[in-house]
Amino acid sequence: MPHGILSIEYGIQPNYEYGFAKGYDWDIIDGQPTSDKEKIKDFSNEFPFLTGPARIPDLYMKTLVKLADGEKPETPYEKQMAEFRKPENWAAAKVVMSQIDIRKQNYFTGAATPTMVSKWNLLRQSEMETFNKIIYGKLPVDAFDQFVANWKSNGGDQITQEVNDWFKSVSGN
Q1: 72, 108, 159, 161: which has the fewest C-beta neighbours closer than 10 Å?
Q2: Whole-prediction pTM value?
């Protein structure tokens, strides 16, 4: 890849293809670039979202799926993901991406609604507790139906209405 040209295919600016700065979050060890924090004396990756290169939004998930499919990492970004993400992460990404047609994306980016302010923490706590109990066998799977009914009656329906109203106000729909 020519120096100074944005790689559209991989979404990585070549000046930063291995990371932010040599000796900071990557280095050349034994003639090869690496982001292995155990090998870099002054390794730091404190601000990866501020200092990291711009990337294509779905590059992360596509890279994990590629790894899950057993393909060899080729780009510096793919090699970094292979090094830092566990095979369990790869497999989870493959499941998520295989369900993309039924996956629901949350497009809400507004300020917290009035009901969110008063009820959201309790609803999230209930969700986490219920999901964990189901996952660890402390509750049967059909406990999910009761959770949904409780979530809706304890503010979930009102939050849903407020979010839908917000969406209509910003989208013109």
Answers
A1: 72
A2: 0.49
Q: Which burial class, exposed, middle or buried, applies to 19 when counting CB atoms under 10 A from its CB (0-12, 13-18, 19+)?
A: buried
Report whether 73 contacts 79 (CB < 8 A): yes
In this prediction, the residues of the chain whose per-residue pLDDT falls under 50 are 1-13, 50-51
Q: First-to-last CA distance in the chain?
A: 44
In the Cβ-directed half-sphere of 128, how many Cα atoms lie within 13 Å? 6
85: its two tokens? 């993400």
The span from the CA of 135 to the CA of 95, in Å, is: 17
- Per-residue pLDDT, 117: 96
The pLDDT score that the predictor gives to residue 125 is 96
- The residues facing 29 across adjacent strands are 32
DSSP the chain: --TT--BTTTTB-GGGTT-SSBTTTBEEETTEEE--TTT-TT---S-HHHHSPP--TTHHHHHHHHHHTTPPP-SHHHHHHHHHS-HHHHHHHHHHHHTTTT-------SPPPHHHHHHHHHHHHHHHHHHHHHHTTSS-TTHHHHHHHHHIIIIIHHHHHHHHHHHHHHH--
